[in-house]
Fold this sequence. Notes:
By secondary structure, the protein is an alpha+beta fold. It has helices spanning 7-24, 28-34, 39-47, 66-79, 81-100, 103-115, 230-266, 278-306, 313-343, 349-357, 366-384; strands at residues 120-123, 139-143, 146-157, 164-170, 180-186, 192-197, 208-219, 223-224, 268-269, 272-273.
Amino acid sequence: MEYFLTEPQKTIRDLAKKIAEERVLPVRAELDEKEEFPWAIMKDLAEADMFRVFIPEAYEGLGGGCLELVLVVEQLSRVCSAIAVSYAASALGTFILLEFGTEAQKQKYLPQVASGKRLSAFALTEPTAGSDASGIKATAETVEGGYLLNGTKQFITNGGEAELYTVIALTDKTRGARGASAILVEKDTPGFTFGKKEKKMGIRASATRELVFKNCLVPAENLLGREGAGFLMTMKLLDRSRPGIGAQALGVAQGALEAAFDYTKQRIQFGHALIAQPVVMDIIAEMAIQVEAARALVYAAARTADSGVKSFTEDSAMAKVFASDVAMKVTTDAVQICGGAGYMRDYPLEKMMRDAKITQIYEGSNQVLRNAIALEVRKRKARRE
């Protein structure tokens, strides 16, 4: 379908596709098997200015937004979503800084992120706080010289690899979620260490680690926004970032569709190519319909995020939920119609199926997001009445 992308957007998309096919494809199986962080690919992306696409020109970026980020993530995910999420997580760790940081904070950190010299990460999840983001326990006590951080963050993408972390911690424990604040923490800060690197079902080449803070002193000027605004800022951040998860899911689904089509076209069964069987044709057609519907929704949500409207919770949640469900269904169907070959590691489909699952879980599980969508529908109906 025609999505009326601008020429710069088409250039970004095509360049991301070229990197995925020429640099990622030859190493994706090895990186997955070794569970090795793709630093060489991150360098390639940096040299191609891919980290600049979501950074304003004032801070050495290209001035793009959510849609440009989505285009890159989709193309990378067609080949390897672990590499795509390693790239996208740096944007996630930067979005709060972009929207709520002071000019001094932006001038200090954004050019480093734009150049790819520093990866970023966002730290919210804890052993007791996942979908219920208000359940965080990590604290940031006000002391002379800044904030003293204590606590643990869990399942943090780019953990241990990123140089800059946006950490959500309680500056006022008596106020619950309203006492949470966002604080920038640099990797080499004393008292900040890393726990185990998680061994995952999918996206194995991405780094997922525990962050540990023990009397970690952070300068007062590293506070983002105002004290107590961290939870509200997090909700706005996730609204903006969820189209990126939708793009990750979309890319996986597109890659699985292409791999299944190529295999069934050359596989002979009962004297004909497998794709000539009516039941396989029907499945391929349904996969194609679902992928294109997901793309339309993800691109629309990204454009809404870039439009400047104040609230787009429903749009971004719908895009993430629908695309991730499509990714799981398409990869499952692709494995099924390719039979034993689909199940083998010699083919990419078993990896794609493993990688697809996480998109239904992180940045808000699909069950929780369906509740959020229903609440938005109810609010809209109440306003009309």
